[in-house]
Write a structure and sequence with these properties.
single chain; alpha+beta; about 20% helix; elongated
Length: about 80
């Protein structure tokens, strides 16, 4: 699934009918000791995971492959 497809799903889920949005992704980063391959000593390391997603309004005049227009992908009912 692309970032634009996920943004479209969130726009439809939250019944947003106007505005231009991008998908925002929050990451959580942790550090600690990571076991090495068998027989080697542990080493300092980092872990990263996705913490959440949100819709971020796209600034006026900014176009890109991940900017989704809510009026096009989820038109208001008539």
């Amino acid at each position: 699934m692309t970032l634009a497809e996920m943004a479209t799903i969130l726009i439809r889920h939250h019944q947003i009918h106007e505005g231009r949005y991008e998908l925002g992704i929050s990451f959580r980063i942790g550090v600690g000791t990571v076991p090495g391959p068998e027989g080697s000593l542990p080493a300092p390391g980092a872990f990263m995971g996705v913490e959440g997603m949100s819709l971020t309004p796209a600034p006026p005049g900014i176009e890109g492959p991940n900017v989704v227009d809510a009026a096009l992908v989820n038109p208001a009912p008539t």
